[in-house]
Amino acid sequence: MRIGEICTTSTIFCTRDDSVQDAAMKMRQHHVGDLVVIDQPDDDKLPVGILTDRDIVVSVIALGLDPASLLVGDIMSDDLDTCHADDDVYETIERMHRRGVRRLPVVDGSGRLSGIVSADDLLGFLAEEMSELARIAPHQQAQERRARH
Fold first, then answer.
1. CATH code where residue 68 lies
2. What's the pLDDT score for residue 148?
3. Position 3 confidence tier, pLDDT thresholds 50, 70, 90
4. Residue 15 has what pLDDT?
5. DSSP letters along the chain, please?
6. Is residue 34 part of a domain?
7. Residue 52: inside a domain, yes or no?
8. Among candidates 60, 38, 57, which has minimal Cα distance to 49?
9. Which of 2, 7, 4 has the alpha carbon at shortest distance from 119?
């Protein structure tokens, strides 16, 4: 299966020039724990970083800093890795494991933001796969009973 089939395509984003407080409000409004940071919000939406609720807690709140006086670019993770919509799910899981990240922005062939895939998305996919696998044995047993009678 390809990442494009399971990723979230309605990705919430901000720019590095937004205040951390504005970014936190956007997370609250959209009920998300991360924002993809992009360079050009109107056109290309090229991802340059990611900001998580954990980044805000660890880099701002825990230090007693004012989130209204800091910019997203001051605290975002800019060592960004991305994946493509046609990337294999299992390869993406391995990439996330190696990098120690729970989310990867999904980009199109031109590098523009087209979605985001999270560990939760992948867990849902794997749970469905495991459910299908669990149904094999009972199905096989039923087939054998029909064949013997």
1. 3.10.580.10
2. 73
3. very high
4. 95
5. -BGGGTSBSS--EEETTSBHHHHHHHHHHHT-SEEEEES-TTTT--EEEEEEHHHHIIIIITTT--TTSSBHHHHSB-S---EETTSBHHHHHHHHHHHT-SEEEEE-TTS-EEEEEEHHHHHHHHHHHHHHHHTHHHHHHHHHHHHH-
6. yes
7. yes
8. 38
9. 7
Domain count along the chain: 1
Q: Classify residue 10: in a domain, yes or no.
A: yes
What pLDDT, in 10s, does the model give residues 61-75?
999 999 999 999 999
B/e letters for 29-58, b = 16+ CB within 10 Å, e = fewer, are: eeebebbbbbeeeeeebebbbbbbbebbee
In this prediction, residue 5 carries a pLDDT of: 92
- Locate tokens 């800093």: which residue? 65
Is the residue at 137 inside a domain?
no
Which domain does 69 fall in, by range?
3-118
- Report whether pLDDT(87) > 90: yes
Answering whether pTM is above 0.85, one says: no
84 vs 59: CA distance, rounded Å: 30
Average pLDDT of the chain is 91
